[in-house]
Structures are given as C-alpha cells and as structure tokens.
Amino acid sequence: MNKLIIIALALSLAACGHSKKKTSDHKSNIDLTAAGATFPLPYYNLAFKTYKDSTGVSVTYGGIGSGGGIRSLKDRIVDFAGSDAYLSEAEMAEMPAPVVHIPTCMGAVVMAYNLPEVKELQLTGDMIADIFLGKITRWNDPRIQQVNPGVTLPDKAVSPVYRSDGSGTTYVFSDYLTKISAPWAENIGTGKALKWPVGIAAKGNPGVAGTISQTPGAIGYIGSEYAFALKIPVAKLQNKAGNFVAPTTESISAAADIEMPADTRTMITDSPIADAYPISCFTWILLYQEQAYKNRPEPLAQATVELLNWLTNPEAQDITTKVHYSPLPASTVKNAKQILKTITYNGQPILK
C-alpha cells in the first residue's frame, strides 16, 4: 500500500490551488483538487480512478484528515473536502458561504490490535474507553478476560494508539465513547482533536494502522480497510443490544436503519439495532452550495457536481464493498440527489 504517499501529495494543495485547472468545457481537460478524510481514502482512490477511466476527469485527493480538508475548503483552495464528521451549526456559520454535505458511503471504525497469540477478541465500549483513559493497562485485565471466556490473554501492556491530526475518524470514535462511558464524556468528550491522557500518537489512518502493526500489545481505532489491507485483526464489539458484532457490510448497513434528516447530517454510532456494528458511520463530501466564487469557471463547477452525482449512482456504490465499505441506503441516496439539485452556479442549478 502506498496510501502514505497521498498524505504528502496534499501538502502541495495550498501552493498549487487551481493552477492546473483548465477552463475548457472538454471533460478530459479538467482536474479536480480535493483533500480531507483518510477514512474513505481507499474507496475514493478506486472510485476516482474508475471515473477518470470513463470520463477523463481526474481527481487529486489529499488524505490530510477531515480537519485539514475542512480548513482547505474554508480557504477555498480545494474543489471539495472529505469529512467523516459533519459540520455543526457553529462550524457552518464560520464558513465563508453555505456548505452542503453529500454522503458517499458508509464504513466502520474498527478496534485493531496487535496480539499474535489472540486470534479472536471481544470488547465492550466501556472497556475501550477505559483503555484510552489509562484505567485498563494490561491485556489480561479481569474485565477483558470476563468477556473472552476460553481465550488466554497475555500479561502484556496495552498500548493505545490515537490520531495526532484533526480527524473525522476520531470524531466518530469519540462520539461513540461519549454515548457509552460517563467518565469519557466528562473528561474527554467528542471532537476531531482531543487531549489524550495516554497512548501513542500517529498521523492519519495509515499512520495509526502502521503503528499498531509494528507495536506488540497495541490497540487503535482505524477505518476497516486499513486493518484488512495490513492483515491486522479487529475485535468484535458489544452493541447496544448486548450482542458482540464484527464489522461487515451487513452489520454496518444495519446501523443506518434510521430516519435520515434531509441534510444527511447525523451520527449512527451505538445503534439500537440488534445486528448493527456499534461504530458505523457515514462519510461526506463537503462543497459550497454556490459554485461561482473566486473566479471559478463554470465547467469546473459542472465537473465537480457531476462527479458527486456519479458517486451516489449504482456504479460507484457497487465499488464500496470491494474495499470493505458499505453502500448508502436508498433513502440516503435520495436525500443526496436532492441536495445536489440545490447546488448552483450564479444562482442557476447545475444539475438539470
């Protein structure tokens, strides 16, 4: 995997801006620039390549974390941003113009661990919280042993690994723990960047995955594809119904069996559905609702919206399961299509 290269690529975004963009309305001359969440990066890499092969439109996406992507969008140096955390009302108000959220796929934040002697592991949400609070420090802690009968847990130090950068994955993870653990809610809370009491810091999902794979006794939260790609085992987690569930296409999709708000801004962690994986989430692409800004040519705006429309189509949604994500529910696709119709250029809808 060369996903770390993508992070380095993003460092040039501020310098290059739209310098490489063509104003021709010929699609093959259009290059789109984006940055943000590393969580959906494997899906975006494959989807954007597929789109380029069929349309000629290329997309340079820098995996710099959701926080970095949102900052880049705020500074108007990218065409769109990727984020696993939706903007709050306060964050929306801080943007220079109205922003819309387009959901692109669903995924799971998994608890990946490095214990070669343990082939299967089960954890509860409060145990995970206490690991990252520094209250559980050994793998053979009686609480972990209690939910893993028949498993020989090693007398080895637990080394939690967390994100050092502003991260939507961190937001999803901490949103789940805030719902599960009162001590976590009181002392840490929910956010893209947190003050961690213990653990090892690493940048991006690739960085956390790499640190876990190289650190005996480590455990950390990452997008499921990163665990599968590096062959790092992941724990089954106890959901709200009391069942221990593995992250699968089916268990992730089950978590989305909710009434979706029209703007799609919602969290689906700690779902009450019996077979739902408890740290499931949507991931979004964020862009300005009015696309005529900063001398932005209309063909560029058109290409951006057409790409996002394609991402919600069956061809793109079918790609999700190839890289361990889940497709959007039909109701979410419907909402996304409605939002796309509200995106304008000089006040006129881009999608006809």
TrEMBL record:
Q: Name one GO molecular function term.
A: phosphate ion binding
Start and end of every PBP domain?
28-312
Superkingdom of origin: Bacteria
List, alphabetically, the SUPFAM superfamilies matched: Periplasmic binding protein-like II (SSF53850)
Q: What keywords would UniProt list here?
A: Phosphate transport, Transport
Known Pfam families for this protein?
PBP_like_2
Subunit relationships: The complex is composed of two ATP-binding proteins (PstB), two transmembrane proteins (PstC and PstA) and a solute-binding protein (PstS).
**Which family does the similarity line name?**
Belongs to the PstS family.
Write the protein's name.
Phosphate-binding protein
Gene symbol here is pstS
